[in-house]
Amino acid sequence: MKKRKMNIGLNDKGILRRTLLTISVFFLSLNTFASEPLYKDSSMPVESRIEDLMGRMTLEEKIFQLNQYTLGWNNNENNLGEEVKEIPAEIGSLIYFEEDPELRNLMQKKAMEESRLGIPILFGYDVIHGFRTIYPISLAQACSWNPALVKEACAVAAQESRMSGVDWTFSPMIDVARDPRWGRVSEGYGEDPYLNSVFGVASVEGYQGNNLSDTLSIAACLKHFVGYGASEAGRDYVYTEISPQTLWDTYLPPYEAGINAGAATVMSAFNDISGVPASANPYTLNDILKQKWNFDGFVVSDWAAINQLKEQGYTADNKEGTMRAINAGLDMDMMNHAYDRNLQALLEEGLVTQDVIDEAVRRILRVKFRLGLFENPYTSEVKDRFLRKSSLETASNLAAESMVLLKNDSTKVLPLKNFKKIAVIGPMAKTQKELLGSWNAHGNPEDVISFWEGINKEFGSTHEIRYAEGCDFDSDISNGLSDAMKLADWADIVIMCLGEKNNWSGENASRADIHLPAIQESLAQTISASGKPMVLILTNGRPLALDRIEPFFNAIVEAWQPGVAGGESLAGILSGRINPSGKLAMTFPLTTGQIPIYYNRRKSGRHHQGFYKDISSEPLYPFGHGLSYTDFEYSDIKISSSEIKKSDKVTATVSVKNIGEIPGYETVMWFVSDPFSTITRPVKELKHFEKVNINPGETREFSFEIDPLKDLGFVDNEGNKFVEPGDYYITVNDKRIKLTLTE
Ligand code: NOJ
């Protein structure tokens, strides 16, 4: 085995821990004569309870706390592992696959009554975009630019989860992702570090509420720490080449924001970060997360990631993997059987110290105490916890705000006005299942309002609506084509529903080419020969390459995988009952060959050259793109002072007028650019945004309070934040203003 240098210095955190330990010892001495052990006394401070419990635990009991097995029926084909026939009462955590709390309570009873110390089990699950009330996939949520609504949806998910026996979700995923071939772009908040930070914080706040011990809150888990989004060529589980500079300026910021928001746990990633896998990386786990950011919750591995260290060529066997992982700061082992089988021997051989084991155990106990599991280990079943009226309203609002009107050409077919006969064509029109997206927890297709159902409810009493499938999702077209052609000839307008199946994105669902399946493209082309106005409705889990079919359509709505209320929200957008307000959180390339393409790239030395010879170098729809049924007019930007010192703050404002005829939401995005600096920076960077409803004729003022270090500054390759004097540009829409910073 190779020796590794550990870097654990005494910093503020160390001093804080020593102080807490002194307080704990004080409380422990107070409790010496009490009949109940101190750790069971909820009036005692958490740190004292932890120390008391630690003092009573055997090595074996401690090691069990560091392991997670599963309970219930596992239907995830990517989570393959050795079945555990007899779960020990001392186990630290279980992934809970069931929908009701019965089995959990039985298992918890075993832990509480049959284990010596009665330490409750922590039950976790992948509640990614809803538990049973499924709302849009995370990428779509980011397109809402409405973090308050996302927080609300996460609170719904938390309530349904906790009432069903789940205390902890493996969410949010805040991996900045710039390659739409990677299936997991659907699980995160797009290409921008700031947007991932804002939505990551919103979901942590939604899941965890004001108090983790509340019976409506669950613990959040920031994942996958770190850099998983850089997966080479969009393939899953592969190597990532990340320079220290990019690690700090692109991949780490959302995690720092999530930790500052109080996220209880973190999951390590599968990827190998430039030679050191993320699950055994002392720099990212110990030095950055725990030392520099003072994170005091625990880190769980991803599924079987410790064993995979061997496949990654980093360790000789699982024993060495265990040694590397725990010494690097990975506290809980998810379904590896690495810690349970190897830690004792490693301790005896002196390759892992008791302090390292104790520290990991403390962190896990801390989260259990904070969740109130010692006081409330069981879940009482609440019968009407799913699909409540208010939960469905949230799902519907979020679906509506997530959908992006990508195109509405000069014929302005949307909102639908003068058409009486509507032809709904395409393989995605009647599907319920595919609208749930990947990782749909306990979502039930029968709960979903399909596009077809939504359109019928919206237009059924006033319009004539007919349907033809046209083609299957990705097989032979010949079956339905002639019916679809006849329908198009009959109709005044064609609504064509195309897209991806839900298992075409998510984990282990990469694509080499992000066009729609050829059969769907050919359906679009054939039907366009009818000469009828055509609207394209897309449901998919990643940006698509639309270059070959975009010209056939007068309007395009990106509906994403919108969850249970998708059909209702889509129909509202088609009729104009809802004015679309979504804007892209991830660039739509013109075609796959442009990937990676994202707005905040670094500058080129020759911006007038370096273009592709064969296609345009511009994306089809850039980051931030999204149309409305009304128009907005922006004033010039005003700034309270055009020259400030580094230590000052300044406010920029812009007025936006709704010059159309209907109310509409506008998202004002504030970008910063630095013309030159000692470390080169992106062309522009999003720093602030605000979404507000504006009535026709009304003007609203938007402002951005600029804090130089936070908003104009940058980070070096060791994570030091700095800001340099000089000129900066603040841009909003097509307006720009200069701000000069002096020493
Ligand atoms: C593997 C995935 O990468 C991770 O996101 C998920 O939380 C775990 N499996 C557990 O299902």
Name its key features.
743 residues, alpha/beta, six-stranded mixed sheet, five-stranded parallel sheet, 20 helices, disordered N terminus, binds 1-deoxynojirimycin
Bound molecules: 1-deoxynojirimycin
Q: What's the tally of helices? A: 20
Radius of gyration, whole Å? 27 Å
Q: How is the main sheet built?
A: 6 strands, mixed
Descriptive overview:
With 743 residues, the protein is α/β, with parallel strands linked by helices. The chain is 30% helix and 17% strand. The strands form 7 sheets. A 6-stranded mixed sheet has the order 11-16-15-14-12-13, sandwiched between helices. The protein has a 5-stranded parallel sheet with strand order 4-3-2-1-10. Strand 7 and strand 8 form a beta hairpin. It is globular, with a radius of gyration of 27 Å. The chain starts with 11 loop residues before the first helix and ends with a strand. The model is unreliable at 1-21 (pLDDT under 50).
Which SSEs are present, and which pair or pack?
Elements: H1 12-30, H2 46-56, H3 59-65, E1 67-71, E2 93-96, H4 102-114, E3 122-125, H5 138-143, H6 147-162, E4 168-169, H7 193-208, E5 221-225, H8 244-251, H9 253-260, E6 265-268, E7 272-273, E8 276-277, H10 282-292, E9 298-300, H11 305-311, H12 318-328, E10 333-334, H13 339-348, H14 354-370, H15 389-402, E11 404-408, E12 421-425, H16 451-459, E13 464-468, H17 478-490, E14 493-499, H18 518-528, E15 534-539, E16 555-558, H19 566-575, E17 632-634, E18 638-639, E19 643-645, E20 650-658, E21 664-673, E22 685-694, E23 699-706, H20 708-712, E24 714-715, E25 721-722, E26 726-732, E27 735-742
Parallel strand pairs: 1-2, 1-10, 2-3, 3-4, 5-6, 6-9, 12-13, 12-14, 14-15, 15-16, 19-27
Antiparallel strand pairs: 7-8, 11-16, 17-20, 18-20, 20-23, 21-22, 21-26, 24-25, 26-27
Bound molecules: 1-deoxynojirimycin.
